[in-house]
Amino acid sequence: MKKSKKIGKARDNSKITRTKINKNKIAKSPKSKQKQLVVRVMDLGQFNLSMKNARKINQLDNSLVNIVKSYDLQKREFRKKLAKILSLVVKEGKSLDDKQIVKSDIILPPSDISIDEASRLFIGEGVMRESIFH
Predict the structure, then answer these.
(1) Would you state the pLDDT for residue 103?
(2) Best exposed site among 8, 24, 41, 120 by fewest CB in 10 Å?
C-alpha cells in the first residue's frame, strides 16, 4: 500500500509528494542481467531504473531541452521586439508635459517586464486594439 506525504513545492508551485514504498519494493542493488541505472531525484532520493524506462526519460529529457532552448530564444526575441517598440515611441513621439494629465490610448509595459507578466498582457489583440485604427 502506497501512502503519499507532501514534502514541499516545486519551483512552479506545484505540490511535490513523496510516496512511501513498501519495504519489499525497495531495490537493493540490481542483481538481474538487465542493465539498471541509478537515478537520483533531488529531494526524493535514488531509484534503480531499467534501461527501457531510461530511454523513455531520455525522450522526455530531449523534449525539455528543446522547450528550454525555444523559451530562451523566444525570450530574447521578445526583448528585442519590446525594445524596438519602446524606442520607436521615444524617438518618434513627442513627450507630453508631466503636469498634463491625459487619458492614454495605449499603455506599454516597461522594458524590464518579466515574460510571466508579459504573457498576461500580450494576449488576444495585445496592447494595440484593432479598434484604434477605425
Answers:
(1) 86
(2) 24
